[in-house]
Specification:
The structure holds two protein chains of two kinds.
Chain A (H helix, E strand, L loop, with lengths): L4 E3 L2 E5 L4 E6 L5 E9 L6 E6 L5 E4 L2 E6 L4 E6 L8 E9 L4 E3 L3 E6 L1
Parallel strand pairs in A: 2-11
Antiparallel strand pairs in A: 1-3, 3-8, 4-5, 4-9, 6-7, 7-8, 9-10, 9-11
Chain B lengths: L3 E4 L2 E4 L5 E7 L5 E7 L6 E7 L5 E2 L10 E5 L2 E6 L8 E8 L6 E3 L3 E5 L1
Parallel strand pairs in B: 2-11
Antiparallel strand pairs in B: 1-3, 3-8, 4-5, 4-9, 5-6, 7-8, 9-10, 9-11
Classes of the chains: A mainly beta, B mainly beta.
Chain lengths: 111, 114
């Protein structure tokens, strides 16, 4: 069983705070690393797909970095807003494009 | 992108009964995937459903417990059979994107077994 770990499990921040979470994954058989944003009762929404070591992606206030050699990815949110409250999932895709998910980081942004 | 309609969105079921979850995709896809997320756990792949052949189950999941149908390229069902409280989870269906570098998901089914 392939282990993908996310930390922290949950996070409570004030509106305007910047925050970041970690996804750790095996460094072998790497194909891609995915980040999803999942709000309750909605479909997980794709944020980023990263494939190359050193990749950095940005979408508005959210950005992500990738280190495939050491097996980690960081997701950053700058100036958190209440609408950023959600569970953030990462998924490691192996050479067969099979997805292995972390258990998620649940973010709560207080106004 | 693909739009997936999954239902029911939630249900509370008695132990020993079965529930069938449906997923309808707005385009034809070769493979559909069924995941489960138990409380506090990761999303875990149950099986891959191919049209015209039996589903492929992951270790720890069996057809008798989670029978899957895939009658055409836009539809699939997952049945959770003879339910127990341990089956209380969120169940998600998923398809790959055109480039196979992304996945799209249904809205999930939140199942509580009492």
């Amino acid at each position: 069983i392939l282990n993908v770990e996310q930390s922290p499990q949950s996070l409570h921040v004030q509106e305007g705070d910047s925050t970041n979470f970690t996804c750790s994954f095996p460094s072998s058989n790497f194909y891609a690393l995915h980040w999803y944003r999942w709000e309750t009762a909605k479909s997980p929404e794709a944020l980023f797909v990263m494939t190359l070591n050193g990749d950095e992606k940005k979408k508005g206030r959210i950005s992500a970095t990738l280190n495939t050699k050491e097996g980690y990815s960081y997701l950053y949110i700058k100036g958190s807003q209440p609408e950023d409250s959600a569970t953030y999932l990462c998924a490691f895709a192996d050479n067969f494009n099979k997805f292995y998910f972390g258990s998620g980081t649940k973010l709560n942004v207080k106004p | 992108s693909a739009v997936i309609s999954q239902k029911p969105s939630r249900d509370i079921c008695q132990r020993g009964t079965s529930l069938t979850i449906q997923c309808q995709v707005d385009s034809q896809v070769t493979m559909m995937f069924w995941y489960r997320q138990q409380p506090g756990q990761s999303l875990t792949l149950i099986a891959t459903a191919n049209q015209g052949s039996e589903a492929t189950y992951e270790s720890g999941f069996v057809i008798d417990k989670f029978p899957i149908s895939r009658p055409n390229l836009t539809f699939s069902t997952l049945t959770v059979s003879n339910m127990s409280p341990e089956d209380s989870s969120i169940y998600l269906c998923s398809v790959e994107g055109v480039t196979n570098t992304e996945a799209f998901f249904g809205q999930g089914t939140r199942l509580t077994v009492v």
